[in-house]
Specification:
It is a single chain. The protein is mainly alpha-helical.
Length: about 240
């Protein structure tokens, strides 16, 4: 798995720092033997300026990657530690170049530990002091692969969550459709009840009207009978 651009730039910056350390060591050796150091001093100044620019570019790249969430927070923190170590190393190299501190005596293998070795693998940063146990001893390629595996596991979890949400959405839609059908049935029943209620009220009014008419007819019959009785009594001879 290929490294991303930021890790490639970091590896190149590490190699530049190692090259500066070697040149400072060579410059100091020439000073001790009385050699001419003007050319190598000019090269060192340019290299130190280039190192400063590379570190600034690494900081900007990390800020963009972190802001756009292209990397996880744990990886962003790890890369920030790498930058902090480079800044510390830059200060040490500048101080050693100016003669403010005594140059350490690193071995050749230590100086070359952070660059591309003969095997073609990318070695770990030799100045990293806060690396986690999970990544200690791993190359950048292996760390990148580990990072990709974590992201893939997270993607799988998100896919499973999306599937659950999709099923819940389908169930919600089905429940909504069922509720709409039930509401339509309820509306039909309510309409039927309203019509039945209107018919009942109409029939009730008719019954009352019939009752009123029946009572009037009864009274009329009684009055007629009373009139007949009066007439009969009036004409009946005593």
């Amino acid at each position: 798995m290929s490294q991303d651009l930021w890790l490639q730039n970091y590896d190149a910056t590490c190699r530049l720092a190692q090259e500066i350390a070697e040149n400072v060591h060579e410059r100091n050796r020439q000073q001790r033997t009385g050699g001419n150091t003007a050319k190598i001093n000019m090269t060192l100044r340019a290299s130190l300026q280039k190192l400063k620019q590379n570190i600034a570019q690494l900081k900007e790249g990390l800020l963009r990657a972190s802001s756009s969430r292209r990397i996880m927070q744990s990886e962003a923190d790890r890369r920030q530690n790498l930058i902090d170590d480079l800044l510390t190393r830059e200060k040490q190299l500048n101080a050693t170049f100016k003669g403010d501190i005594t140059e350490p005596e690193p071995s050749r293998s230590t100086l070359m530990a952070g660059g591309a070795g003969g095997s073609g693998r990318v070695a770990a940063n030799p100045w990293l002091v806060n690396e986690s146990e999970e990544t200690r001893g791993l190359t950048f390629g292996e760390i990148k692969q580990q990072q990709q595996q974590i992201i893939q596991a997270q993607d799988a979890g998100l896919d499973a969550l999306a599937a659950v949400i999709s099923r819940q959405k389908i169930m919600g839609q089905e429940i909504g459709n069922e509720l709409e059908e039930q509401n339509e049935i309820i509306d039909d029943v309510a309409h039927l009840v309203d019509k039945t209620d209107d018919r009942i009220r109409n029939e009730t009014r008719r019954v009352k009207l019939v009752e009123t008419k029946s009572a009037s007819c009864g009274m009329l019959v009684v009055i007629v009978l009373l009139l007949i009785a009066i007439v009969v009594i009036a004409v009946w001879p005593v």
